[in-house]
Amino acid sequence: MNTGELFEALGDIVKQKGIDRELVFSALESALVSAYKKNYGTAQNVKVTVNRETGEIHVYAQKVVTEDVYDNLLEISLEDAKKIDIRYQLNDIVDIEVTPKDFGRVAAQTAKQRVVQEIREAEREIIYQEYITKENDIITGIVQKKEKQNVLIDLGRLETILAPSEQMPNETYNHGDILKFYVVEVKKTSKGPQIVISRTHPGLVKRLFEMEVPEIFDGIVEIKSISREAGSRSKIAVNSRDENVDATGACVGPKGVRVQNVVNELKGEKIDIVKWSKDPAEFIANALSPSKVISVEINEEERSAKVVVPDHQLSLAIGKEGQNARLAAKLTGWKIDIKSESQVEEN
């Protein structure tokens, strides 16, 4: 590869990868300084310039103008400097061209690897900046393949792993499946940006509702808390800032279409939408939906609540394997003890 070909190749890279043109040429100039010193070394302070239009390369030895010259490689006398340009003064830097005849060939060979490395790093930075804005947001990816317990996901500019802990139980991941993921974290590593994605994170439910419900996006309805057992059931507590807007109704949507879209994306995960209240007793009663609640007795100090439900509603309030009570406790932040009417009467 000669300098002309190298210059052309650099131009193509700039266009294809969207990397700053000046960054590429600065990297090239830096690489050429190293190339000159390694192959020639006839000057100690060296500057290399690459013409941005033609690709022409020039090497300059840089010397300080002094009264007495002790080192010819670093210094030049005022008298000699003025022979080059009458305007030179003491302590100025004089650029003296020392471009070797065959430097173009050496430059092309030596600079290529360094420039490619710089471009790779610049490309990684561009990708990192693109994905860091998606942290705590939703991203769409395509399932590539399963490797042992991990699932390889194509996110467009890069691929990442969906770890077993971030996979929804009972969800199958087949090649070509298009899914939405929650971006938990974007990290810089020596191998480029690393993205941690999840299908189990409560943030996935939150962001899906924000996308589906205009009232949430507009800030009229707010999501106060979420509790989730991925793949099985989620509870979401919502509140309206406008008394004329029903928060739960907005999230359910006309004919249930909004909540159904979220359920479909989560492969049938059940979702309870409950009304948040600043009154803990009312909030806890709502959180135990779909069960009906007779009474809630609050213990502020222990942050616990004793809840009484109709006899026929006890199993519904507790839920299968205690799930409904467990999710309600997570949603409200209160310990919840549930008893039926007859259990309370017996005591």
UniProtKB/TrEMBL annotation:
Major localisation: cytoplasm
UniProt-listed PROSITE patterns: KH_TYPE_1, S1
GO biological process, one term: DNA-templated transcription termination
Swiss-Prot/TrEMBL keywords: Cytoplasm, Elongation factor, Protein biosynthesis, RNA-binding, Transcription, Transcription antitermination, Transcription regulation, Transcription termination
An annotated Gene Ontology molecular function: DNA-binding transcription factor activity
Cross-referenced InterPro entries: KH_dom-like_a/b, KH_NusA_2nd, KH_sf_prok-type, NA-bd_OB-fold, NusA_N_sf, S1_domain, TF_NusA, TF_NusA_bacterial
GO cellular-component term (any): cytosol
Pfam families xref list: KH_NusA_1st, KH_NusA_2nd, NusA_N, S1
Location relative to the cell: Cytoplasm
Classification via SMART domains: S1 (SM00316)
Domain S1 motif: 136-200
CDD domains named among the record's database cross-references: KH-II_NusA_rpt1, KH-II_NusA_rpt2, S1_NusA
Subunit structure: Monomer. Binds directly to the core enzyme of the DNA-dependent RNA polymerase and to nascent RNA.
Record's function text: Participates in both transcription termination and antitermination.
Protein family (similarity comment): Belongs to the NusA family.
NCBIfam families named among the record's database cross-references: NusA
Protein name, entry field: Transcription termination/antitermination protein NusA
Organism encoding this protein: Fervidicella metallireducens AeB
Gene: nusA
